[in-house]
Design a protein that fits this description.
Strand content: 15-25%
Distance between the termini: 23 Å
Number of domains: 1
Number of strands: 3
Number of helices: 1
Largest sheet: 3 strands, antiparallel
Helix content: 10-25%
Bound molecules: zinc ion
Strand order of the largest sheet: 1-2-3
Order of helices and strands: EEEH
Length: 62
């Protein structure tokens, strides 16, 4: 199962994604989507602003 462009609603592992807020020094307060179960390789991690941008682009193409 592949995660397409846009907001990732489900991780390839089958878990629903969650929205969290970054607390790192580089990206403070930036929101991201993450696999709701496992944080690691082969699981969803995507910045929310990137995902929203992709979602808008996908809509514009249709
Ligand atoms: Zn996962």
């Amino acid at each position: 199962m592949e995660v397409g462009p846009g907001i990732p609603r489900r991780c390839p592992c089958g878990a629903a994604t969650v929205v969290l807020t970054s607390k790192t020094k580089d990206n403070p307060g930036r929101q991201f989507y993450r696999c709701g179960v496992v944080f690691g390789e082969n699981h969803v991690f995507k910045w929310a602003d990137d995902a929203v941008l992709e979602e808008i682009e996908a809509l514009a193409v249709k």
